[in-house]
Amino acid sequence: MKKLIEISHVNRVFSIVGGEFQALKDINASIEEGTLTILKGRSGSGKTTLMNIASALDFPTSGTVCIGGNDITKMSETERENMRRRDFGFVFQAVSLIPTMNAFQNVEFSLRMAGIKDNRKERVEECLKRVGLGSRMKHMPSEMSGGEQQRVAIARAIAHHPRILFADEPTAELDSSMAAEVVRMFQEITREEHLTILMTTHDTGLMDAGDMVIELQNGEQICQTQ
């Protein structure tokens, strides 16, 4: 498979009261296109910091991140913003759906924001059906369970055909059965949408569900397994 994300010698140091804190220490990883990668570790291990750097939301103190052969650490902020909007999808622990919009409208709004004008209705319906909400398109977030809301958030994140989906602790607020269902959904999406997914979790029950697992501990990379 083709290497899509190349993380090389990434360090991240934050200034804190009285000195510095090194959140990441010489991280190296290669992620293949069309795979689900689990970034695992306890709270404070550095996994969210690494995801933020890989998704162009933050800069490393040193090191490089290449996506599709392009070093994103050398891009301008405008180029990084355009890449996030065009090539990336995001799912977070907090679903952040717009409460005054139903499921269909929430997903369609993401297409509007991405500047997509053609076949919006068909794409929204396709994505909501893909996450098992074909019969809930007109329901408001307040009428949905936490798991259903997270599935709407996933549909919203994939609607514009991103190359990479970044999912930061997407199952943290869900029970174990719904968390397993979300991961199963991610596995299907990588195959059917030809999407690359990088997902963080501290849930030990989900850590071996990916095509690849990267483990962090105290900011250091413990292992990368396939």
Describe this structure in words.
This protein is of the alpha/beta class and 226 residues long. The chain is 31% helix and 31% strand. The protein has six helices and ten strands; from the N terminus they run βββαββαβαααβαβββ. The protein has helices at residues 47-54, 77-87, 103-113, 120-130, 146-158, 176-192; strands at 3-16, 19-32, 36-40, 62-67, 70-71, 88-92, 164-168, 196-201, 212-217, 220-225. The strands form two sheets. It has a six-stranded mixed beta sheet with strand order 6-7-8-3-9-10, sandwiched between helices. β7, α6 (176-192) and β8 form a beta-alpha-beta unit. α3 (103-113) crosses α4 and α4 (120-130) packs across α5 (146-158). The relative contact order is 0.21. The model has no long low-confidence stretch (mean pLDDT 92).
Which terms would index this structure?
single chain; alpha/beta; Rossmann fold; 6-stranded mixed sheet; 4-stranded antiparallel sheet; 31% helix; globular
Per-chain topology:
Elements: E1 3-16, E2 19-32, E3 36-40, H1 47-54, E4 62-67, E5 70-71, H2 77-87, E6 88-92, H3 103-113, H4 120-130, H5 146-158, E7 164-168, H6 176-192, E8 196-201, E9 212-217, E10 220-225
Parallel strand pairs: 3-8, 3-9, 6-7, 7-8
Antiparallel strand pairs: 1-2, 1-4, 4-5, 9-10
The CATH topology assignment is Rossmann fold
Instruction: Name the CATH superfamily classification.
Output: P-loop containing nucleotide triphosphate hydrolases
Domain count: the total is 1
Strands side by side in the biggest sheet: 6-7-8-3-9-10
* Architecture (CATH level 2) name: 3-Layer(aba) Sandwich
What is the radius of gyration? Answer: 17 Å
- Reading the helices and strands in chain order gives EEEHEEHEHHHEHEEE
* Number of beta-strand segments: 10
Provide the helix percentage: 25-40%
> What is the percentage of strand-forming residues?
25-35%
Please report the number of helical segments.
Answer: 6
Distance between the termini: 13 Å
